[in-house]
Amino acid sequence: MDFNRIVDKLESTDWSLIMNMEDANEAADNFNTILEMAINENTSYVVPKRSDRVIKPWITPGLMRCQKHRDNLHLEARRNPDNTFIQITYKRYRNFLYALQRKLKTEYENNQIQQNKDNPKKVVENAQKYM
């Protein structure tokens, strides 16, 4: 949303038509219409990249950064198959990330069970989700 362009659009609007209206409801409707048009004209919708979307609820922004780092290490390891330092670094980071993901998922599942322990229906739904 470009607030500066919205303000410019509203400043350049002729408000005398609304100010001179006799019916307050009609003036309010026209004001809302002008305001909505200014906002809609100066708003752009951005679809987040697939890699930036959180698909699973236990995946945190920090974990997503770790996944990107792992992917970059993987590319580097594939480019340099003879460099043992890069290979070992990638494998250790991959294994670390895998363990971290499992830990976060388990913690999330346990947290969901604890939150819904008084609601048997939710407990069954969560159990079915995680099996």
Notable features of this structure?
131 residues, mainly alpha, 2 domains, 6 helices, 71% helix, (apollo) hypothetical protein
Structural write-up:
This is (apollo) hypothetical protein. Residues 111-131 are annotated as: Disordered. This protein has helices spanning 3-11, 16-19, 24-41, 61-79, 84-115, 120-130. With 131 residues, the chain is an all-alpha fold. The protein folds into 2 domains: 3-41; 50-130, no CATH class. Helix 1 (3-11) crosses helix 3 and helix 4 packs antiparallel against helix 5 (84-115). It is elongated and about 80 Å long. The model has no long low-confidence stretch (mean pLDDT 86).
* N-to-C order of helices and strands: HHHHHH
Distance between the termini: 43 Å
Strand content: under 5%
Shape: elongated
How many separate domains? 2
Question: How would you summarize this macromolecular structure in one to three sentences?
Answer:
It contains six helices and no strands. It is an all-alpha fold and 131 residues long. It folds into two domains: 3-41; 50-130, no CATH class.
List the helices and strands and how they pair.
Elements (H helix, E strand, L loop, with lengths): L2 H9 L4 H4 L4 H18 L19 H19 L4 H32 L4 H11 L1
Helix pairs in contact: 1-3, 4-5
